[in-house]
Amino acid sequence: MFTKHPQTMQFADIIGQEAVKSYLLKNARQDSVSHAQLFLGAEGSGNLALALAYAQYLNCTNKQPADSCGRCNSCQMSLKLAHPDIHFSYPTVTVGSKGKKSTDYMAEWRQAVLQNPYMNVFEWLQFIKAENKQGNITAEECDEIVRKLNLTSFQGAYKILIIWMPEYLGKEGNKLLKVIEEPPAGTLFLLVAENADALLATILSRTQLLRIPPLNPPDIAVNLHNRFQLPHQAARQIAAQCNGNYNAALRLMSNANVNNRQLLTGWLNACLQNNVPQFAQFTEEIAETGREIQKNFIGYCLHFFHECLRLSMLPNYEALLEKDEIQTANRFLQSLNYNSLEELVQAFEKADEHIARNANPKIVFFNLSIRLADTGQGKISFT
Ligand SMILES: [Zn+2]
Predict the structure, then answer these.
(1) Superfamily for 11-212?
(2) Is 128 exposed, middle or buried (0-12, 13-18, 19+ CB in 10 A)?
(3) How many Å lie between the centroid of ligand 1 and the Cα of residue 73?
């Protein structure tokens, strides 16, 4: 999701990740900067934001102890993603002659990253109107990288190439091996990836790995409160259901959350009363939405069930749920025991994986409906 709040990307602007920040600052201060580093972190961890802040810091001409100055010439250009020595490669789609090189989409890249450096590749490809086309870092782009890195740096500082989602490098990525192995002096590769298994082994073995963990929910909650003036309770609630993924938190911020609530109540109602036509209709309707919406809904359901589990087990537990959700949860819990709830959570976790792997949503949601109907045995009414 893209917001209307442009973000700057100095270390101070990045959510949480204090250990990663101090590690990067320390190795910059000690001048022990490895020339090929892999910033490996799941969606929404801030891996791209960290790489940007690090690149800006390295080239800042007035470094402060814990951050770049944000004001020098170099910082001014870095902040606009327009530093002549900081280059970017990312997946693109080819339309006619456009899209063979990353620079073909430079204006879109700046706009998208400045709006949301936590975006995922799906959102980026939608942003450049890729529609059903598969994103790719092309052979032409690899040749361009080699050419660019062999130019002298403009400012005499580090020449940095940030490759975002190198998972999208096919075999043509092997064109980069030599330059990664023996880069021109003062050249740095920062690879920003989510999934090490999808990287070319030849590239992976040539990089120094920096693992970036998912964010801590309290860090996300504080950010949502400060940035969007979201009430504390609502901010904690969203932070609790996004698995340390800030991008997911942004998605949940939208109205989707309210819709999810109504959707789940209606669905539970149909299933727990064993109303087959009604839950079949629900299945049809949700199957027609997109994969992101389905994943978002399942994420919400999992949050709801986890909260139900806690409510059933912990006396005086203060649930991360709104009033109407607590009412639904209490009625739902009347017919359930701990075991069936545990099993439901597992079924939903599996469904989440299946949807991510492009399984047929009709089948996935129909199976879930049957599971829900089984747990209720037609006993509960929500109306
Ligand atoms: Zn500076």
Answers:
(1) P-loop containing nucleotide triphosphate hydrolases (3.40.50.300)
(2) buried
(3) 7
